[in-house]
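Record format v2
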Amino acid sequence: MAEIYLENVSKVFGKGTVAVKNLTLKIEDKEVIAILGPSGCGKTTTLRIIAGLEKPTSGRIYIGGKDVTDLPPKDRNIGMVFQFYAIYPGKTVYENIAFPLRCRGLSKSEIRREVMNIADYLEITRILDKEAVACHPSEKQLTALARALVTHPQALLLDEPLTVLDADTRELMRVKLKQIIEKEGITCIYVTHDQKEGMSLGHRIAVMKDGELQQVDTPSRLLNNPINKFVAGFIGSPTMNFLNGEIIKKNNEYYVIFSFGSVKIGKMLEKCEHKISLGDEITIGIRPRDIVLYTKEVENSVPGYVSGIEYFGDHMLIKISLSSGDSVICQTTPIKLKINDFVSVILPEEKYFFFDKDGKNILFKEVEKNMHIMGE
Amino acid sequence: MERIYFSKKWKRICILWVNNMVEVLLKDLTKKYMDKVVVDNINLHITDKEFMVLYGLAGCGKTTTLRIIAGLEKPTSGRIYIGGKDVTDLPPKDRNIGVVFENLALYPHMTVRQHLVFPLRKKQLSNAEINRKVKEIAELIGLSHRLDHFPGMLSGGEKQRLAIGRAIIKDPEVLLMDEPLKNLDALLRERMRMELKSLQRQLGLTVICATMDDREAMSMGDRIAIMENGKILQIGSADEIYNRPEVISVGKIIGLPRMNFILGKLLREQGKYCLKINDHRLFLHSFECEEELKKKINDQIIIGFRATDIVLANSPEVGSIECNLVLSEDIGGQKVGYVDFNNEIIRVLLNYDVAPSKKVWIKIINVFLYDSDSGKILTRARVT
């Protein structure tokens, strides 16, 4: 059993730069968790704290139920793969993989057996005698992975292992990595800023921002049930559109009014746990794929014109400047459109997400209606 | 841009203010380092106000091509024309080109204003003139309120815009960008793509941009030149390239998920063309050019198809092929499955839930057929 438990971990660097703020996170045995966040959010620091490369300013780290906070990295029995391979130059792939075993004083034959095992497993047997630095980037990263796995660690930590690869190798490696991790059944923490990698590999994703953990959840729940505006905007590609509105009361009914219309929120307001009142500013979020685009005016639609087009073969992203002054991005199947063409959009009410003024809390969680995104 | 000329009509020297056409022409451009050919006989015509993207994987020669256009490298052979003028032997400073480098190359000790003024120093402009220009560009790139900030205080996107502002403030004829979005994180990159494109449109700039990201290439480029090993494989709009990749290497790097390729044999049976893949037969109809197909009867050919060209089912149907699902991944709303097809992995879109190692039935409906030797496209076809 190798569950990892971080308890109120904080890390402050130098003159009060808070890299990690009071982080509590539990990673189950054999779970793959992705830590996702923009650069500078503290995800790498968190990983380094778990590995023992950084000492937390406060808080405890438990691996497999044992407090390892004061143990040096070598005694934590953890494998780690870094962003920039960290391959030993002047050594062959074989020697690179054998290195941690040699440090542990294993016999030659034992080392050989272990290295061959793992190389066979990762399908890199044919490059074992190659100079490691001369290998293809993806082979270097596999070498680093083999070196991390050869000691049979309790947990595997990966720090953006695919960032240095080009887009194509990255896709292949991502799939390969997913297979390896799933087959190995190892507790794994995967740090990335690429949500595609996080979504693909992670059973759960921990979204971080400014050193603070925002939400830990399965990929589909992050998409359908984001806890705040940051998560909503960060997860899902293309990014969610945000529009500002205000709460008003008309004929004893509550509405959110925004630049081009209003939506009745009476029922939802009753269920809402957060205190909001008349005149409060509110932000509405809607995902680009939920916006319906028309090339002519239809009933209840908002007119606008095309101000940007991105074509991707099987779909298009279209930026629309609405007559109300807002602009939204809409995803459609490829259609013939030019810049400045007239279009109109319908923003279906049932697809809205609601956030309060600070973007802190989602006001009305309407899970069911967004389910189709993931096809659940 | 002013042009001085002798007018026959007025019988005197005139100054003509023209919004001159800036086109860039690369003719038989080759660059060798020792024996290594980095740019291999490139011919490329970038028209006025065009956003041209050079797209290829690392080491394909796109950056070298940009550096040659900028004048930072001398070509081994070939000529470069900008606005009809041969600039091959001109130093960079005389080429009137703006460059945005991959790492942006901002000066940490200079404010935004100083960055913008810097390229104007040599231009002998009056202070008022300089101020006017700085104000104009700062407004354009949305940094008016940041003029006294240092790069360290700017966000990623603002730094990006500053680098562009600095490159365009002296009214270059051409703007070169080398992976301008590479160092931004994913979210910002997505937004900057559109911003960059609309800035280019607004200014009517001729842009040549190198990138390693196919989404970037497709979304920004009016046309894309796809490069590999120093050669241009195909030039065309995103639409043209996506819907007809001329060679296998192009298909392999355009569109997500990536195109699948499998081997098959072309046969002529019952008066129809037919692809034999192991024991399966796919009958072709509505292909573009039969001539090419005729020549290849009984030959091995390579069959390319995208995930969107496959219909997936959970039970056998006429013409469907049974496969095992190896792995599935969910990448933000799109479920991609990896299917074992005679030891080849092919990518499919999963429109329903399947557990890995379960059986699925795939039906290919559109194919691109390629010559197995040259890798060139033979035809597109539909499958019955």
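Confidence is low (pLDDT under 50) at residues 367-376 of chain A.
Chain A touches chain B through 44 residues (CB under 8 Å).
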